[in-house]
Amino acid sequence: MVKLQTARTETSPAAAIAGIAGKHAGPIATPSPGEPCRSDRAPITKIAAPAVTVLMSVREVPLAMLREAVESILAQTMPDFEFRIYGDGANEAALVAALESYAARDPRVIVRHGPPRGLTKTLNLGLGEARARFIARQDADDWSEPERLARQLEFLERHPDVAVCGSNAWMRQENGALLWTTRLPGDVPAIERALWGTNPFVHGATMFRAAAARAAGGYCEAFACSQDYDFFWRLCDHGGGANLAAPLYHYRFRRGAVSAERAGEQARVHKATQALAWARHMGAEADVHGALAEAGRQGKAPRERLAARLKQADHRMLAGDYVGAARSYAALAFAHPASAVAWGKLARWCVFVAAPPLRRWCFRSCFFRAANVP
């Protein structure tokens, strides 16, 4: 394992925002001992706060995908940013060496390695340490268009009433093959309506105001996955949200990224998020753990367990694992012969594989919401 050297940085503001996390979100984690890692091969000089902080969490990701993600940010037409990369328990020598190399040659890159915290806590750590007024997300297995940061920053500066700005995205298979381009709701009213049904943002494609994110309490640490749905809903409650019509982000489906258990947990978080939003809407007390417990009871129903396994098969198919997806669909259809959804998804697999031009239609049909695909 390559050992990174550390450099002293200014005091993190994480402690200052830790108390802001309200009853709708778990406490924001303050940094654990350790300093941001940089290489001493490139001199680092103190500069004014950047316009944008880009946050990325790295755990298990192929090196080629990581390089594509990092280099897409370093190639942005808007150069005034800091790029904070958090190794969430990622200790593979090749990944560590690659990140060290980026930090050595570009002073905007700040790499911090730590124990596995999970994405939610890692992002809250980043919220505490970010120095910019605007924060952009980037996932380690996706990539951004060169003008993405510039266009989102310009939009937020022109619309001070908007707290979060996303964009449409190209949906791609694991090997990068294009599936379709999303058609997400664009303006504040459309997003407010869409939130009641599903998450109208692609997480990695968003930029939001740091002050609004901290005022909203950051990411809810009771949610180990799908934390962005609740976070963006609370952020929109504070200031509204928008999506740029242009696709500025490339989202990659990866096989194995969604297990049946993970799919069930995602469904539980979605139900809890909607229950919490309804409580806020009604002016009632928002009980995160109570909402999760109730969603968990609902998730034990046979229909919900079947939906989780079908969602896992959906992601296999979208990633390009057609054989694995077909086996999963067929097994579930024969195990649940009365399920029209299971048989319908098996039939949809045939259309998806045989007629690529109809792939978008396949996920805009009655099966769309079960798959939760933008």
Task: Characterize the structure shown.
With about 375 residues, the chain is α/β, with parallel strands linked by helices. It is about 45% helix and about 15% strand. Strands 1, 2, 3, 4, 5, 6, 7, 8 and 9 form a nine-stranded mixed β-sheet that branches. A hairpin with a 5-residue loop joins strand 6 (about 165-170) and strand 7 (about 180). The radius of gyration is 21 Å and the shape is globular.
What's a concise summary of this model?
This protein has helices at 14-18, 63-74, 93-105, 119-129, 148-158, 188-194, 210-215, 227-239, 260-282, 288-299, 302-319, 322-335, 340-354, 359-362, 368-371, and strands at 52-58, 81-88, 109-114, 134-137, 143-144, 164-172, 178-181, 207-209, 241-252. With 374 residues, it is an alpha/beta fold.
Secondary structure: elements and pairs:
Elements lengths: L13 H5 L33 E7 L4 H12 L6 E8 L4 H13 L3 E6 L4 H11 L4 E4 L5 E2 L3 H11 L5 E9 L5 E4 L6 H7 L12 E3 H6 L11 H13 L1 E12 L7 H23 L5 H12 L2 H18 L2 H14 L4 H15 L4 H4 L5 H4 L3
Parallel strand pairs: 1-2, 1-4, 2-3, 6-9
Antiparallel strand pairs: 4-8, 5-9, 6-7, 6-8
Helix pairs in contact: 2-3, 8-9, 9-10, 9-11, 11-12, 12-13
